[in-house]
Amino acid sequence: MPSLDLDIVPALSRALDEDALVLHFQPEVDLASGAVVGMEALLRWQHPQRGLLWPADFLAVADGAGLMPALGWWVLEHCAAELESWRPLPPTVDGAHRQLWVNISGSQLLEPGFVDRVAELVHECALPPGVLGIEVTEEALASGSRSAPALLEALRDVGVALAIDDFGSWYSSLGTLGELPLEAVKLDQSFVRGVGSDLEGDSIVSSVIELAHAHGVRVVAEGVESWSEGARLCELGCDRALGYLFSGPQRAEQARLMLAHGTGWQGAGRVPQPRDRRTLHRL
Ligand code: C2E
Ligand code: MG
Ligand code: MG
Fold first, then answer.
1. pLDDT value at position 244?
2. Pocket of ligand 1 contains residue 225 by CB under 6 Å
3. Which pLDDT band, with edges at 50, 70 and 90, does 5 fall under?
4. For atom 42 of ligand 1, which residue has the closest CA?
5. What's the domain range around 57?
6. Taking the model in full, what pTM does it have?
7. CATH number of the structural domain spanning residue 104
8. How many domains would you assign to the chain?
9. What is the gyration radius of the CA atoms in the chain, in angstroms?
10. What is the rounded average pLDDT of the residues 121-147?
11. What does the pLDDT read at residue 275?
């Protein structure tokens, strides 16, 4: 357990009360078409003295201090409001809803009443089924006493899409694909680094994709940074991706622009050249 930073804990509680937390949103891209199909919400904290802090600066301490459920509810409620603000956006090409994915910690997931409270949020904000997505790590699922399939099934039944985050970074990975009601797995960055450069990396990723597809589960690659990674993942049949190649996490207004106009990635057939990439980050 991380040692508690006595300065951070009360300051973080105050930040929650004073709304000093911030959400950034990272585009999720359909690799074949280049369409921005959704976003992942990533938490930041605008600290009065230290500037903008990232999760690595405060999440472990928040977890140790028992603040994760409160932080998680702040995130979920703000994401539901963000989804409401997406309603005026032009419709997508295929008419599908854009999804917003939220990271949920093990301590929040296993909180009594979690599913009921999520159901209330979905109902109150009239969110269409599957528009709000919840991502959990296998490690978080393994830490609970309630069986993971039952918990995830209850969440799916209240209209939430489910994904396993950092897929492959936990020992039980492949077995979970057929057991859980998943819409997607998010392939850990460590696998993404291997594609396009060595045969072993390609064959691991290709086996995961094949197995996931056999269970009707979509594969989303995380942390895609290079042209070769993006193009090779698409060739291997990976469905979607996030990463600096397309766009880093953005403030809400910028993220909405990207939902409406794209990131500049035009699908695997038209990999943008490095000059275009600089323009993308200034969008
Ligand atoms: P994650 O959910 O796996 O999120 C992906 C992380 O990779 C994010 O780091 C993102 O900024 C970073 N990333 C995105 N594209 C690239 C890339 O191309 N290359 C590299 N190297 N990194 C990339 P971030 O924002 O620092 O978040 C770290 C972790 O903190 C997240 O990992 C997630 O586990 C956790 N987290 C973030 N926001 C929340 C939240 O609201 N609630 C909870 N419980 N956890 C959160
Ligand atoms: Mg995530
Ligand atoms: Mg991840």
1. 97
2. yes
3. low
4. 103
5. 3-282
6. 0.93
7. 3.20.20.450
8. 1
9. 19
10. 89
11. 41
